[in-house]
Amino acid sequence: VAVALTIQFMPAAANAVMYVLMALVLLARPRGLFGERWERFE
Does residue 37 fall inside a structural domain? Predict the structure, then answer.
C-alpha cells in the first residue's frame, strides 16, 4: 500500500520506500515479523 501511494505522489522515490520500510521492520523486529526466540544450548 505504501509503495502504491508513493508511486502516485512521488514516482522517483517509489523504489526507495520499499527498502526504507524493510529497514524499519528490521530495526523494530530484528528476528522478523513472526520470529520466535531462539534458545542457546551450552
Answer: no
